[in-house]
Design brief:
There is one protein chain. With 449 residues, this protein is α+β, with helices and mostly antiparallel strands. It folds into 3 domains: 216 residues, Multidrug efflux transporter AcrB transmembrane fold (Up-down Bundle); 63 residues, 2-Layer Sandwich (Alpha-Beta Plaits), CATH 3.30.70; 131 residues, Gyrase A, domain 2 (2-Layer Sandwich), CATH 3.30.1360. Helix content is 51%, strand content 16%. The protein contains 10 helices and 14 strands. The strands form 4 sheets. A 5-stranded antiparallel sheet has the order 5-6-4-11-12, with no helix packed on it.
Length: 449
């Protein structure tokens, strides 16, 4: 083995060992400590698309508002204990939420879509316009002037450190703390509402206690930096505290598309996908070894390197692997073999012209490279188009998964065919096996010895 070939072989060997340690075992590799992330169609769960109402948003800030909503939804989903959720923008006013393995669908939708904005109100005087009307009377937003501007008192001014404790008689209490602006507002409002009720509203509805009645505490003294809400059930107090601490979704969200996949169906998909992929890989390996003989054996070894590296990348990025993504991966295996076939056919032509094996290898790669390069570049372009379009199409997760896995697979297949297989052939050319040209001839069924 020449020094020129020794270094590439060492690098290839190190990459293969690292990739194998990342991949094996599949559920949690020795390196990386992460399993392959499965999509909804393989793991089961729910896929929801929300439409954001941006009508009240200041023009030019739509992207910022949506990004804030995505971050807040992420915090809320984390509280659900969902592993590997997918939350991302879709187009100009939609948000995709994928919750693998979630069972309580309605509970998840309620937590995700709830705006969790508490507004405080005072009773409207006769002739004043009321925003809320319920069995306790008519209410208007409680406002005060701070820094020369009239502002309404809402949970926008809560610090994200609310918690639930218990009162003397064991009832739950939601304790909250105001920021600087909220403290000034609350002090001014409570100073004028001594011995008067303060309404608390969740969106358009009053915040109701465990008994079903609206919570309207009576102000007994001036309050500044903190406050508390009594009368909630323990579950509602805990839920509300989590939502308030997760942040407020700045715009109303309406679910417009929902798809649910059962875990049983997902496990069937996994089993069938693994079986199909394994059968396809074995058939490809057998074909290459039988038809192309010794070069086919080397191509098969390179293909095993390819599979290991691609799966390692899927784990490390990580790529959410769905059924369409597996299809893209399997297709990229075929394309990796296709590059080797082009190279071997060119080598065969050079050997027929009487070239030595070493010269035939170099000429075969140089002549096959333009075709490999151009075909793969067109595939990259198509993958890019599919990926971009998937950001604007509802239910497009399979399209995105196919584009991502195919792109990664084709990129690694180019490296495998041009570098790995070439290195193996160069090393082989300097051995006694490289002197037996019959081992490099295409199988004809008549014995080419």
């Amino acid at each position: 083995m020449t020094r020129k070939n020794r270094l590439p072989l060492i690098i290839i060997s190190i990459l293969f060992v690292i990739a194998a340690l990342v991949v094996l075992p599949l559920n949690e590799g020795i390196l990386g400590k992460r399993g392959i992330r499965l999509g909804l169609d393989l793991q089961g769960g729910t896929h929801i698309v929300y439409r954001a109402d941006l009508s009240s948003v200041e023009p030019g800030t739509e992207a910022e508002v949506l990004n804030g909503a995505v971050a807040t939804i992420g915090n809320r989903v984390d509280a659900l204990g969902v592993t590997e959720p997918v939350i991302q923008r879709l187009g100009g006013n939609r948000i995709v939420v994928e919750l693998p393995g979630i069972k309580e669908i309605e509970e998840a939708k309620e937590r995700i879509g709830r705006t969790a904005l508490l507004a405080f109100g005072e009773q409207a005087e006769e002739g004043e316009e009321a925003r809320w009307v319920n069995e306790t009377g008519e209410w208007k937003p409680a406002t005060a002037v701070v820094d020369g501007e009239e502002k309404a008192l809402t949970s926008n001014y809560f610090k994200e450190n609310t918690y639930v404790t218990t009162e003397t008689f064991g009832g739950p209490i939601l304790v909250f703390e105001w920021d600087e602006t909220g403290s000034k507002l609350f002090e001014e409002i409570t100073s004028r509402l001594i011995n008067k009720p303060l309404g608390i509203f969740d969106g358009d509805e009053p915040l109701r206690g465990e008994d079903g009645r609206p919570i309207t505490p009576v102000v007994r003294s001036v309050i500044t930096d903190r406050g508390q809400i009594e009368g909630l059930s323990a579950g509602e107090a805990t839920e509300l505290s989590k939502l308030l601490n997760a942040g407020r979704i700045p715009v109303p969200l309406t679910p417009i598309y929902e798809q649910t996949v059962s875990p049983i169906l997902g496990s069937d998909f996994i089993r069938m996908s693994l079986t199909a992929g394994l059968i396809g890989l074995i058939l490809v390996l057998l074909f290459m070894m039988i038809y192309y003989r010794l070069p086919g054996v080397l191509a098969s070894a390179a293909l095993m390197f390819y599979v290991s590296v691609v799966l390692a990348i899927f784990k490390l990025i990580p790529v959410t692997l769905n059924l369409a993504g597996i299809g893209g991966f399997v297709l990229s295996i075929g394309m990796a073999v296709d590059a080797n076939i082009l190279i071997f056919e060119r080598m065969k032509e050079e050997l027929r012209l009487g070239r030595t094996l070493g010269a035939a290898i170099e000429a075969g790669f140089s002549r096959a490279w333009p075709a490999i390069r151009d075909s793969n570049i067109t595939t990259f372009i198509v993958c890019g188009i599919l990926f971009v379009l998937s950001n604007y199409i509802i239910g497009s997760a399979p399209v995105r998964g196919f584009a991502v896995t195919l792109f990664i697979g084709v990129a690694i297949s180019m490296f495998t065919a041009v570098v790995v297989t070439r290195t193996f052939l160069r090393i082989l050319a300097g051995t006694r096996w490289g002197q037996k040209t019959s081992l490099f001839s295409i199988y004809s069924g008549k014995g080419n010895d």
